[in-house]
Amino acid sequence: MHLRRDPIIRDSPIHIESQRELLPDNPQADPKPIGYLDICVLFLTGSDKLYLAMECKRLNVRQAKNRTATQASEYVTKGMMRFVSGQYSPTWPLGAMLGYVMDGNMQTAYIAIRHQIERHAQQLLYDPALFRDVKQLELFSTTHQRPGVPIELRHLLLAAHGLP
Questions:
Q1: How far apart are CA 32 and CA 24, in angstroms?
Q2: Per the CB 3.0–4.6 Å rule, which of 29, 52, 94, 151 could disulfide with 41?
Q3: DSSP state, 38?
């Protein structure tokens, strides 16, 4: 809603949607959505196939008895894998992952994600040797050699401490 109110965004050649339904390309197929993009940046070109997909996941979620669940496994297996499998952005070489770090501990979140990426490297079509040290824990990228169109995922971790 905030972006929709912004006059620069409103007059630009992009449109931002949340929870955009992805439908199968084949009009004869079952019209049941194949997924929902958390955030979709549509480039107003006359084609609804040209978009930047952003998948959002919560990290370091506080639980009962002062415990914290990293949820980095879900970030990788239910977030990044949607791009690698081609469910999201099948013909587009770029996607984005947003991690809301609920306790604000960026270092713990980054280390947990990196561990899960290394653990699932084969499924992610990713070579762990390509993981370079980053200067900012909250901003990094990974490249996945999926068939047809390799994809680069840009990762942004946002401190969300103080939120429910």
A1: 8
A2: 52
A3: E
